[in-house]
């Protein structure tokens, strides 16, 4: 069995599971946010049970439109908050919250070998920890909150092997953009992506989170990494419960095996309006920008901010550009502050915000007007994703976004 | 039996196109329906008639997990969606809320915007009345059919929990 099959078998009381099989899976954590929880709560109440299956295994994070951007979003956050208090589930208020997919691993709420479902498509982020994590809708979350399990179809696994050594300024973001550019936005539809190879072994946890995060952008059900020393080091002081490490069998069956030589890959940019519309940054041409956004569940971790600061420190954001930097959690914010990164950002002329998903989905804190262009370290550049349907979003890693903020046009960090 | 005019779309219709996130500060389906397809088809809401059928090529509903997307489509009066393939979260969401989806390559290839289709969900039979053609959608796996006949996931869950208590 593959890594994913091992985890799913263990969570469905089966010795073996195979791709295509329908199974009922026990979940270790169920998650919703301020956009998806209101519907989940309404549906949960229709089921007719009083209590969630286990309050310590249900978590709600207000992060999309908080701090509340308007009255309607305040009402949604309020509904979720009241449910969380009533049910005594895990809840992180503004001031403690972070972007859910940055926050949950950081808090030790997701551990290797877990099955996690979340009412947010980027729930697949937790695959970086060797967990099986997948996004679902509000009604699925409602059912799981009542029963503690959920139906799934066992996905086939695609094995992606990354050989070679990364060039300077090339990160996990570039590997996943390159991969999506290669296989397409439905290249892994209904499948799990297992990321392996020497370049993956060398990758930091923050970069692995970035890669797993965007598995959904290839249509995948999950993205997953094997647990190694780096994973163990990450979870060791965070875990407050035991966890199991699963390994794929030597004779595991993969639906596809894809190999890449990463030494040939330069920083990637996904042009409008698809994450698969990728080009090496050197071939993007002269694209002037109005905004640069560094943050999100994809690239809002400490290492991302360190890379951005390396470029922004002692330099100035282009006068025509709004550079917005959003640490993914209060801990990331505090660490960045302690390390002097925030000071570097502010001195460079960047705006720094409290954690929020805000601008990534055109919510608040950096919405685009018609004909505006943004280089963004986020995960989607669909039509109207960050605001006006006539605006454009270019996806990149934090180094490219920071360099572009200085130059006022999309540029390679090499040019700085 | 469903009958309606076709509204046709291409590949990778994403959830931001179906219902832009700026409208997700509410979850009332009727409110969401007012902005349905706004991202790629600004006239959709004006033109869509109750019973209309959406037809699209591959990976329909890709992107976000927002259940608001199928809710908006359903509340806009669309009776079912026929595509070559659906994004997986959208697929689950639609089945869960009772918006029928059918997968059929041939029906998609041989149907144009404005055609009139007749769809029999139980058998998966799709008739193009405009062109006098008939197609057969992929049957649902047994478990999915059970879920649909129960009336969606919430009803299915109610039954499961009732059986547990016995």
Task: Describe the structure concisely for a colleague.
The complex is a heterodimer of chains A (416) and B (166). With 416 residues, chain A is α/β, with parallel strands linked by helices. Helix content of chain A is 31%, strand content 18%.
What does this structure look like?
The complex is a heterodimer of chains A (416) and B (166). Chain A starts with a helix and ends in a 9-residue tail after the last helix. Chain A has helices spanning 3-10, 37-47, 71-87, 100-106, 138-147, 172-183, 198-201, 205-213, 229-236, 296-299, 302-312, 330-338, 341-348, 398-407; strands at 22-26, 29-33, 58-61, 90-91, 115-118, 132-135, 149-153, 157-163, 192-196, 222-225, 256-261, 268-270, 278-280, 291-294, 322-325, 351-352, 373-376, 392-395. Chain A has two domains: 3-260, Aconitase, domain 3 (2-Layer Sandwich), CATH 3.30.499.10; 269-407, Aconitase, domain 3. The model of chain A has no long low-confidence stretch (mean pLDDT 98). Chain A has 14 helices and 18 strands. With 166 residues, chain B is of the alpha/beta class. The longest helix of chain B is centred in the C-terminal third of the chain and has 13 residues, at 153-165. In chain B, a hairpin with a 4-residue loop joins strand 6 (125-128) and strand 7. Chain B contains eight helices and seven strands; from the N terminus they run E-H-H-H-E-H-E-H-E-H-E-E-E-H-H. Chains A and B meet through helix 2, helix 3 and helix 5 of A and helix 5 and helix 8 of B.
């Amino acid at each position: 069995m593959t890594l994913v099959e091992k985890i799913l078998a263990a969570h469905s009381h089966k010795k073996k599971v195979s791709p295509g099989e329908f199974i009922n899976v026990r979940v270790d954590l169920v998650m919703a946010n301020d956009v998806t929880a209101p519907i989940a709560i309404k549906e949960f109440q229709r089921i007719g049970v009083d209590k969630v299956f286990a309050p310590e295994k249900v978590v709600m994070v207000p992060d999309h439109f908080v701090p509340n951007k308007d009255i309607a979003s305040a009402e949604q956050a309020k509904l979720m908050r009241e449910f969380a208090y009533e049910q005594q589930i895990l809840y992180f208020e503004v001031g403690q919250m972070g972007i859910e997919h940055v926050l949950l691993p950081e808090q030790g709420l997701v551990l290797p070998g877990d099955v996690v479902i979340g009412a947010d498509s980027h729930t697949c982020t937790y695959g970086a920890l060797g967990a099986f994590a997948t996004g679902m809708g509000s009604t699925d979350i409602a059912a799981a909150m009542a029963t503690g399990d959920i139906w799934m179809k066992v996905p086939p696994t695609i094995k992606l092997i990354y050989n070679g050594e990364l060039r300077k300024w090339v990160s996990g973001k570039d590997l996943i953009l390159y991969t999506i550019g290669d296989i397409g936005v439905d290249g892994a539809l209904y499948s799990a992506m297992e990321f392996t190879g020497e370049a993956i072994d060398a990758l930091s946890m923050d970069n692995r989170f970035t890669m797993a995060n965007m598995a959904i952008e290839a249509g995948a059900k999950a993205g997953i990494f094997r647990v190694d020393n780096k994973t163990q080091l990450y979870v060791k002081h965070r875990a407050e419960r035991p966890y199991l490490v699963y390994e794929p069998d030597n004779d595991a069956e993969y639906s596809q095996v894809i190999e890449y030589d990463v030494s040939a890959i330069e920083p990637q940019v996904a042009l409008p309006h698809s994450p698969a519309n990728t080009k090496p940054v050197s071939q993007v041409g002269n694209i002037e920008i109005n905004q640069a956004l560094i943050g999100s569940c994809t690239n809002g971790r400490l290492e991302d901010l360190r890379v951005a600061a390396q470029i922004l420190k002692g330099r100035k954001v282009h006068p025509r550009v709004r550079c917005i930097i959003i640490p993914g959690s209060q801990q990331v914010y505090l660490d960045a502050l302690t390390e002097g990164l925030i000071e570097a950002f502010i001195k460079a002329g960047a705006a720094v915000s409290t954690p929020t998903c805000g601008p990534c989905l055109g919510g608040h804190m950096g919405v685009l007007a018609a004909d505006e262009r943004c280089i963004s370290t986020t995960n989607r550049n669909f039509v109207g994703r960050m605001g006006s349907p006539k605006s454009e979003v270019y996806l990149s890693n934090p180094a490219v976004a920071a360099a572009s903020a200085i130059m006022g046009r999309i540029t390679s960090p090499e040019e700085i | 039996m469903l009958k309606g005019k076709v509204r046709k779309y291409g590949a990778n219709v994403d959830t931001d196109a179906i219902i832009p996130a700026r409208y997700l500060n509410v979850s009332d389906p009727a409110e969401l329906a007012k902005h349905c397809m706004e991202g790629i088809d600004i006239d959709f809401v004006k033109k869509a008639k109750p019973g209309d059928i959406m037809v699209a090529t591959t990976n329909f509903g890709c992107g976000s997990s927002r259940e608001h997307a199928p809710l908006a489509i359903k509340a806009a009066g669309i009776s079912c969606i026929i595509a070559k393939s659906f994004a997986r979260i959208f697929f689950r969401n639609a089945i869960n809320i009772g918006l029928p989806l059918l997968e059929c390559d041939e029906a998609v290839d041989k149907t144009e915007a404005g055609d009139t289709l007749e769809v029999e969900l139980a058998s998966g039979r799709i008739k193009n009345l405009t062109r006098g053609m008939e197609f057969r959608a992929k049957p649902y796996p047994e478990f999915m059919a059970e879920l649909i006949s129960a009336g969606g996931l919430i009803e299915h869950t109610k039954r499961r929990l009732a059986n547990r208590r016995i």
